[in-house]
Amino acid sequence: MKQVDEFFSIPYLLITKQFEILQYTTEVEEIFVMHHNFLKMCDEESVHKVIKEVVPGKSKNKIEINLVPSSANHDLLLVDLYVNWKNDLHAELMIIPKDQGMLDVTASLGQLRSRLNTTNFELLEEKEKLQEAMAENNRLSAPFIELSSTTALVPLFGDLNAEKIYAVGDELLTSAQQSYIETILFDLTAVGEIEQDGVIAFQGVVQSLAYMGMEIVVIGVKPDHAQRINDLKLKLGLKFLRSLQQAIRKYCN
Amino acid sequence: MTRKHYEKFAEYLLQGKEDEAVELVDKLLTLHPRLYLFEDIITPAMYYIGALWEKNEISVADEHLATAVCDFVLSRLDAGVYENKFQSKKRKKIILLGAEEEQHYLGLKMVAGFYREKGWRVRYLGPNLPLNHALRQIKDWQPDVIGLSAALSYRLPVVKQMTEAFSQLSWSPGIIIGGRIAKKYDLSNLETGQVRVVKGLTELEQVHNVWKAGVVDETS
Ligand code: B12
Questions:
Q1: Are B100 and B197 part of one and the same domain?
Q2: What is the ipTM of this complex?
Q3: Which chain B residue has the Cα nearest residue A135?
Q4: Which of B59, B72, B61 is closest to B17 using CA atoms?
Q5: Which of A83, A164, B108, B175 is 20 to 30 A distant from A182 in Cα terms?
């Protein structure tokens, strides 16, 4: 192959139908890794495209491909390849690397994206902290207080929903297991709203405790809770007492 | 039928029609699980876009637009997944990152969605992460598993280097290597008791089912 100087200062090549390089300008050598065969200068995953698009049947063509650059800064260089067949055997190739401007835009888009991502990240972090705080809050709204060696009091605070019951359920069951408690007093005096899913979850916990042989007593049921809780009474055979005082008198002697 | 869906989806991506793309995904979501959307619609659509580029029908500029719309659709798919149902219980942690210099991140983002749906805590660090950066974040957070993704064949040495560095961590996290590189090349020489090469989300799902069945202890 022959190096030519009498041409524009751009990467230019003359090749055969078999992609053998006959002529090339210095710019080709400067920007890319030279080979005798043009296909060897292409990224392996651009070769197929070159073989299909650089054919005498398409006498003038323009395609985008990736070439292997001589600089170590990049793995690949995306270029526009202009093809002009002089005859059935020889083609001229002109290589125009993609505008640096576009590459810059791509890079800054990438940076923006990763900034968005970090923001997301921090939000997520805060969200998880909040969720943990809420879970903690839920756990604290049902302390397990041992009144005597056989009786424990579990006062419930706030609205009764499934989330809260799930949060306290496990601890309640373990506390009950680890002690000699026989009777658990659930005090609903400080409960606000009772939600349907809360009742179902509550039923689950009470049932497990009952299976463990606990006697379950519910105290402080307000008139507007009565109906919901009453269903449980029938299903689970719970005992009801009006006030904590009554309960303490009965169970803590 | 499916073929039509992913081609249609690819068309929306290339035309920048995010509303239509979201609508199609929402519709399919009523019939199929998310995994199907990731694996049988969105991924094939992106590969199809790659094929169009090879046929000289579109340019890389078009791919950028398609990527942006696809990214948007994935974010939408992610919304509302990590919910309270995973409360209190101790959740497993995974960190996801792309090899240094890598710009292909859509697959990694899907993996993030995959794990969120499983109730894991997910730190998605994005692609193009220098090793020392990655190591700092990983040591800070001590994930149970590290997921590494790469697309370009030129990343093989970096992937190897990162895998070796992660293998030395004191608490021996699980390491999963995925991405196009895992699909195209045989990386089985990187596999150890600690390192798995996974070709796609369907395989990832299988790996997890095996873990669940207790054949492999994922925390060890
Ligand atoms: C879209 C695209 C882009 C987008 C990027 C999209 C993005 N942000 O992710 C843009 C336009 C930015 C881009 C840039 C480039 N690209 Co590009 N790109 C593609 C294209 C068309 C589709 C890729 C894609 O989105 N796939 C969809 C995802 C979902 O698939 P996936 O990554 O395989 O992921 C799946 C699995 O692998 C798995 N997975 C992925 N990661 C992980 C991780 C873990 C832990 C697990 C378990 C699983 C897993 O999950 C997914 C679902 O199964 C491909 C063509 C192709 N056939 O792949 C070319 C392609 C990958 N790109 C290529 C090239 C060369 C480039 C550039 C260098 C230059 C260029 N523009 O042509 C630059 C690279 C810059 C850089 N430094 O990285 C070549 C690679 C050639 C090679 N030798 O490897 C390809 C093959 C095109 C080609 N034929 O030339 N590209």
A1: yes
A2: 0.85
A3: B88
A4: B72
A5: A164
